[in-house]
Amino acid sequence: MELQKTTTGEYTLYIPSMDETYHSRNGAISESQHVFLQEGMDRTTGNIKILEIGFGTGLNALLTAQHAVETQRKVYFHSLEPFQVPFDLIEKIGYGELVNDPKLFADLHNAEWENKVKINDYFTLIKTTQKLEYIHLQNDEYDVIYFDAFAPKKQPELWSEDIFRKLYKTTRKNGILTTYSAAGQLKRDLKSAGYTIENPPGANGKREMTVAIKG
User: Fold this and answer.
1) Which helix (H) or strand (E) holds 190?
2) Can you give the pTM of this predicted structure?
């Protein structure tokens, strides 16, 4: 992995062997805020449970934890990440400084894996190394799913109808799955799993993204 600058001047991580970045090359923070907070968390009300597919750099967790405090909503945040990012790279990314909360960013990364950790009065985190393909998920458990896996061509095993059927079962009624992708096969698989699909504008000028709703 190596650091790569986005067009907005922030850094993201780049994996040369996959030719893939962790965040949009056109802006990491703006993408996370748009796709996961605006089109995910903000479309719900009250205290919620969020399942994240891909902890990665911890940016989504950071922004969500900040937003939970700002809106005084209690959030239980369960993040799956079988491939942890080395902390020496995490420190260099500097997302905590960019959102004026380096302590929160450090607390999220220092939280013990596989254990529920109360980060503050509004945000509880559990990070696990279990893979989505194998983890057991309770039915009707989560209000929002942040589906932030690498692109379908890079991680095809996570973008399958079987996976989305599994996620549909763990989504609560009127719950939301949100993702940056707007691939045609993704939409078909989500519909087959039972979701209703919406395609709002994507982040950073991207034409579309996908929001899936469990009616």
Assistant:
1) helix 184-193
2) 0.95
